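$ run holo --ligand "nicotinamide-adenine-dinucleotide" --emit tokens
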Amino acid sequence: MTQATERVNCAVIGYGVFHDFGRMHCRWIDAADGLQLAGICDVEPAARERAAGEFPQVGLYASVDELVADDDIDMVSIVTPHFTHADITCRCLEAGKHVVCEKAMATNVTEATRMVDTARATGRKLAVFHNRRHDGNYRAIEQTVRSGMIGELFHVECCEESFARPRNWWYTEQARGGGVFFYWGPHAVDWVLNLVGSPVVRVAGQTQHRVWDHVDIADEVRAHLWFESGATALITFSWVSAIPKPLWRILGTRGGIEDSKLGNKSGAYITGYQEVLVGAAGQGQIRVVSVDGDERTEQMIDYLESDWLTYYRDMAAAILRDKPLPVTGEEGRMTVAVMQAAQESGDAGGQIMEMSRYV
Ligand SMILES: NC(=O)c1ccc[n+]([C@@H]2O[C@H](COP(=O)([O-])OP(=O)(O)OC[C@H]3O[C@@H](n4cnc5c(N)ncnc54)[C@H](O)[C@@H]3O)[C@@H](O)[C@H]2O)c1
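-- output --
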């Protein structure tokens, strides 16, 4: 760490083309007080070439081994395919680096536990990049729920559904991606667990694999969750839903919330995600119904601003001032556990899985 200036020297591992996401991490780090982008690592020469064009001032590394040998790097952000996360994370923690690991944290709980245990053993910080908690629609929903406007929350549905041919890429390979749930599911599961705020005790899943034979993952997954508070949730991800459900439907004892997503492209409800650095103004509205006796009122509430820089500001504070991590390894592992339990339950015909079996 650069003690004189109190700056954390950071490197990004993975500068891929699919979502341009290594580049986004570089831009967020560059813009966050207390963090300094110092390096980019990718095994692909073409990726390093693109990185050099965009960030000519930083060091380039052709392998994780090369990167961890550089004592000037304090923190790494891992933006590589899911199946690589556990090994790269543990390697970096063991070399004394703090780690931000992209979602999904891992492809299964065993890997996630290895990552959490290595962070504990090395005394380094491990955070999982569930940055979508800062999406403007989610922030508006969370604020409305916390305000008590819909009473006590008892059921949440978060559904990303479309009828679309999945692309053939590592995300749609069971072994490298983790399964159908692991592409968009980490966002949904993290949102729902955060919103309900009670430990999840049981999960049951339903999976369908009947249309898209060119990939080895299921066409859709439905996860039913039961929480300690008695609340329940349904999370779905589908490539075979000709009549999609709204993105969010939330029920409380005195009302409900609905958010019909904008557009039908996964991840595109908030435009500007890849380009707008600090925040994007609200671009939609949630529908809020309040019930008081026989009286029923309805209002539309604007999405809040999306502020995706918050995550790295919090990470800087965690390293420099020992503040709480933006999202802990244990939280990331719980998201993986719910996805794994839902997929295993679906494959077993819908058997109810006790979460104590997983974490
Ligand atoms: N938080 C979000 O909203 C969000 C959005 C998009 C992607 N992601 C996540 O980002 C991660 C990367 O996804 P992507 O779509 O950018 O993938 P990608 O395939 O486009 O890019 C991955 C890059 O990692 C590099 N790489 C692979 N193994 C490596 C290794 N051992 N060392 C160094 N480099 C290596 C590859 O060469 C490639 O350039 C995934 O975890 C994905 O889920 C998150």
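-- notes --
The chain has ten helices and 15 strands.
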